[in-house]
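ESCALATION

Customer reports they have been waiting on this structure for their group meeting. Please prioritize. Original submission:
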Amino acid sequence: MSTAAERRERLKDLYGEASKCVRCPLHQTRTKVVFGAGNADAELMFVGEAPGANEDRLGLPFVGAAGKLLDTLLGEIGLARADVWICNVLKCRPPDNRDPHPIEIESCQGYLHQQIELVQPTMICTLGNFSTKLLRGDITGISRLHGRDEVRVIGPRAVRLYPLYHPAAALYTGSTLEALRADFHRIPKLLDLGPPPQPQQAPSLPELDTDEGFPEPASEELIEASEAAAQLGLF
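Update from on-call: job pushed to the front of the queue and completed.
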C-alpha cells in the first residue's frame, strides 16, 4: 500500500498532467486548470460541479461567494479548507458557466477518480446535481438525496457518500441554506463512524501517463507548476 507521502507525489504528478490537458474543447477557453486544493491526505472531500469565473482566473476551487459560504459552514463544524480536499467534476470552466456537456464529464472524470484514489477520503460530500449523479451512477436529483449518506464503491475505494445542496444554490434561497446547514452539521458524526469496509482486493494504482501527445514543459513551466502545486497545498 502506498504511503501518504507517495500518494502526495502522485497527486502532484496528476496535477502536472491535468494542467496540460487537451482532452476536451474546454482547454481552448480556459484561463487556468482548477485541479483542486486542500489537504492531500484528507478524510473529507468535497466535489462540486465546475469552476466559475473567479476559479478560472485564480486556478483555485470555490473562491467566490459560494466558496465563502463553504468556508463559513466548515468553520461551524470546526474545520477549515486546510483540513479537507475540495475539487470539481470538471477541471476547466465551461463558457458562461453553462452546464457541463457529457463529453466534458467523460473526458474529465478520470482525473476525479484518481484524485479519490490518491487522497483516500473516508467521506465524500457531493455538492449539487452533477457530482451527485456522476459518483452515484444514477439520475436521482439532489432534492431527493441531500442529507442521506450511503456507502459507495468508486473505483477500487469504498467511501461514505453524502450529497449536499451546492452552496451557490443556497446563496439566494433561505430554505435551501437552512437545509444545507442542517445537513452540514451531520458531517462530524458521520466522520466519527470511520471508513467503510474496503473491497477485498483493490488493484494497485496504475502508472500515470503524462506523455499523451503533450510536449515536455520548459524549465520555466516546471517552476510555475511547482509553485502552483505549493499553492494548492500539495507539498
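Sent to customer with the following note: Confidence is low (pLDDT under 50) at residues 210-223.
Escalation resolved.
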